[in-house]
Design brief:
heterodimer; A: 591 residues; alpha/beta; Ubiquitin-like (UB roll); Rossmann fold; 3 domains; five-stranded mixed β-sheet; globular; B: 163 residues; alpha+beta; Glutaredoxin; 2 domains; four-stranded mixed β-sheet; 11% strand
Chain lengths: 591, 163
Amino acid sequence: MDAVNLTIDGLSVEVPRGSTILDAASKLGIDIPTLCHHPDLAVKAVCRVCVVEVEGQRVLQPACAYPVAEGMQVKTNTARVREARKTVVELMLAHHPQDCLQCERNQNCELQSLAYRLGVREISFPYIERDLPIDELSPAMKRDPNKCINCRRCVSVCHDIQGVGALESVNRGFDTVVTAPFWRSIAEISCVTCGQCVLVCPVGAITERDDTEQVWAALANPQKHVIVQTAPAIRVSIGEELGLPVGTRVTKKLTAALRRLGFDRVFDTDFSADLTIWEEGNELLHRLSTGGTLPMLTSCSPGWIKYIEHYYPELLDHLSTCKSPQQMFGALAKTYYAEKAGLDPADIVMVSIMPCTAKKFEAGRPEMSDSGYADVDVVLTTRELGRMLREAGIDFSGLPEEEYDEPLGISTGAGAIFGASGGVMEAALRTVYELVTGKELENVNFEDVRGLEGIKSATVSLPIPEAAAAGDKATNNGVSELEVKVAVAHSLQHAKTLMEQIRAGKAEYQFIEVMCCPGGCIGGGGQPIPTNTEERTLRIKAIYEEDAGMPLRKSHDNPAVKTLYKEYLGKPLGEKSHQLLHTHYEPREKF
Amino acid sequence: MAIPKEQLDSVKERVIQIVSQNGAKEEALLQILHDIQADDNSLSEAELLQVARALDIPLSRVYGVATFYSLYSVQPRGKFIIRICESAPCHIVGARAVISAFEEALGIKMGETTTDGKFTLEATSCLGVCGVAPAVMINDEVYGNLTPDKVVEVLAEYDADEA
C-alpha cells in the first residue's frame, strides 16, 4: 500500500495515498463537520462546511475533497476555520425558513445539528425569503425547495445511483436551487417516487407525503374495521426509528404496538409475499414450458415498475403479471377476508406499513381496485408509523411480544426475505426447485443472490424426475436437468445494465429480480433516516436472521396460503388469481 | 403527458438536425442550445425535451445548463435583445440614463419583453467597448457613445423590422 504521512492538529497519521483530509482526520478521531458530504455518494465539495487550514495554501480547503500529501500540515480547529464554518452555516440559515419546531425533520436535521454544534447563536445576515413553490402533487413525496440548502445529495442519488435524474441544480448564484425541469411537479415527470432523495436530504426539503391523519381518522371511526399489513422490512427497521440499535428485530413488539394503536387486525405482508411466490413461481414455470417472454422480471417493487414503464416500455412483457405483495394483500383483504369475517368490504380500511414511498403511488394506481374498492387505502412509511407510535405515547421497548392475527398473518421465512435484495429470487428458487424436482430442497440458503453487490447472478440446476423429463421440452438435449440462470439487481443503475442486455438480446437469464432501492426494501425511501450502507448491511443481516428463525422457510409450505387456495382461489394462475392477484402495466413517457 | 404531442412534434425535426450537426454528444450541449435558441432567442420546454431525448440524458441536466448560463433563456424573449452594459465605465458616463431612455421608449422594465415580442431589455456585464461607453448590444450589433436622444435614433433603425 502506498502510504502518506501527514500531520493534523499536531498529530501524525499515516493513510493510503488518495485519501482525503477528512478520511485522515477521522482516523485520528477528529470529527470534521460536513454537510454536503455523504458516505455513499460522490464528493461534491459545495457546502464548504468542512474547510480546514492546509499549510502553504492561501485559502481554506474542503477536507472532504482535498487529497492528502506527504508531510502535509493541516489545522482543523483554528479561529479562522471556526469563523469560516460558522459563516457558511449562517449564510445557509439566512435563506432557510426558521420553522424548525414545525419541521418534519426537527431533531433529525443535519443543518440544525450543525448550527448547534458550531455554536451559531445569531445570524449576521438578513433573512431573505425565497418564496419558491412547494410541490405537493405527488402521492409519494413532498418537496419544499425553500428549505433546500443546495447540497446536491438528492441530485447525486437520483442521477448516479438510480439513473433517473428527475432533479437538478438550476439557475446560478443566489437563485440556485434544486428542482425539477421547468418547475414541474415530480408527479408530472418520470420520477419513479423511490424516495432515495428523501433519505439523503440533510434537511426537510424532500419528505414523504404524510398520511398519518387519514389513519388516525380511520382508527377513531367505530364504523370502520381497520386492518394493517406490515412489510417484511418493517420488522427490522421500526425499532431503529424508535431509537433501538440498527438492525434490531422487533417483529412481535411491532404487532403489539399496532394493536395498541387500535388496529382491529394485525396482518403480515409476508403472508402475501408467500402467496406471490406461488403465483410468480408458477408463472415462471409456465413461461419456461410454453415459450413465454423471458427473462421474466419480478414485479414487487413499485419504483422499479414505474421506472420500466417510463424508460423501457417496450420490455413490459418481461414483467411478471403478479401484483406486489402489498396489492395482493389488499385485494384479498376486501374479498376473501371480508367474506370470511362476515364484513362489508366498504367498511374495511386497509392500511399498509411499508419501507417505501413508491408504495403510496402504487396503492393509488387506478387499476389497483380489483376487489371493487381501493385494494389498499393508506400506505404509511416506517417513519410515519414511528411518528404515530411516538405521538400515542407507546413505550415500544416495554411492549409484550405478540403474534400476528390469523390467517393472513401466517408466513414463512421466504416471505421475510422479500425485504432484502435477492430475497424474492431466493424465495422463488426454494419453491420452484421443489415444484420442478418433486424433491425436498436440503439447503434452502442461496447465498449467491444475497448481499450488496450491484448485480448478482446464479445458475440453478433442477434435476427433473425421469417420468416428467420424457415429455418435457424444457430439458436440455435429453438431459434430465433444467438449468435456470438468474440475476438480481438492486438500485436502478444496475437494473438499467440488465435492461440494456435484454434490449440487445444478450441477457442469458430466465429470471431476474429487480428491487428499486439500494439493498432492497430494507433500504427503501420510507425507512429511518439515515439509511446508508452501514444501516443497510445491519438490516439485511437481521432479515436473514428472521428467516433462519422461522419454523417454515418455503412459501409453498405456508398452511394459510394452502387454505386460501383450497377455500377461495382454486389454483395458482387460476381464474380468481388472475382477477385479484395479477395486473397489467402502462407504458409511460420519459420526461 | 406534461407537454402536448403537437408541440413536441413541431420542434422535433429541427432539434434532431441541430443535434446531429453538432455531433450527438453531451459535450456539444452548449453549442446545440445556442443553435436551437438562434430562431427566437429562447429555449422552450419542448425543445429541451427533444434535446434530452436526442442525447439520451435527463431533461433535468439540459434544463440545469440552460438556466445556469445567462445567454440562454427558458422564458420567451423578444426578437431583438437589447443588452445594456452595467459595468463601472458605462455606469460612470451615464448608463443609467440610457436604461431609463430604453425603458421609456419601449414601455417595459429591465428583464421584460415588449408585448409585440419585438424587444427584450437585459443587463450585461462589460461588453469590452469601454472606449465608446455607455454601450449596448442589440443582438449582435454594438452601439456606443449613447445618450437618451441617441437611444431613440437607434430604436428607429428597427422600426421597419416587423416583429
